[in-house]
Amino acid sequence: MTTYRLGIDLGGTKTEALVLDQDERPLYRERVATPAHGYDEILEMITALVHRAESELDHSVSVGIGVPGAISPRSGLLRNSNTVCLNGRALSRDLESRLEREIRIENDANCFALSEASGGAARGYAVVFGVIIGTGTGGGLVVNGKLLNGPHAITGEWGHNPLPWRRDEDGASRCYCGKSACIETFLSGPGLARNYEAHYASLRSTRQIVTGAAAGDESCRAMMATYHDQMARSLAHLINILDPHAIVLGGGMSNIDSLYDAVPKLLPAYVFSDFVDTPILRAARGDASGVYGAALLWD
To answer: Domains of the chain by range and CATH?
Structure first.
């Protein structure tokens, strides 16, 4: 019997399950709140999602899970997750014991990149870098349809490198990872708001800054111009190192329309080439892209 593929996107506030058939058609979908402060509760939630899907479909499923953070290849424990109750836990082994089957777990940004390279905005491109810019800043790399991961399971972690070609950009730039001036502290949603406050000594939410810029507010326009340039510098580093055929943006900040016009125009100043044709694409599958990619871990 053909095994359907279940993907689970484990987020900090919500968790989504999606079952695909052999032709990648959605058969079942469920979204629930994530019990973010209880490890055992998260195990129970995931186990229940799998069992409900199989009961509803009367069909077995393979299980792929996208998580914040990554499984350490050395210890087998989850690390670097902003859902802190997962850190230091044997998530893969514990779930396999409960579900009595092999499962596959990947970083959520890797799942996003796989989804968009497989059937999303970057379908048909050979080398795809997928970027998530939301409450954090992550990334994943897909080459010829295959997710690329190195011996440390950190491929694509561009957000924890320093912002390149720094200027007067020191405000509020301490990162949770313990370093200073990480790209994430500038390009994430909270980072934009913090840096606005540091520059203008005024509190505005990320949404207020974006809408204010569109409405002509001078401080918001200036902040967004800075943000566009910081994004261009950060993506130029990726292009200089990887030279991908396409970059796909996802996460809440990827919904800022001005990115797709302003950032490509700024790239030539930073990319080590006489021309820059790298397309900057908006994710085709939106906030469902990660759960598609989790299901596709079994391709």
So the answer is: 4-111+288-298 (3.30.420.40), 123-282 (3.30.420.40)
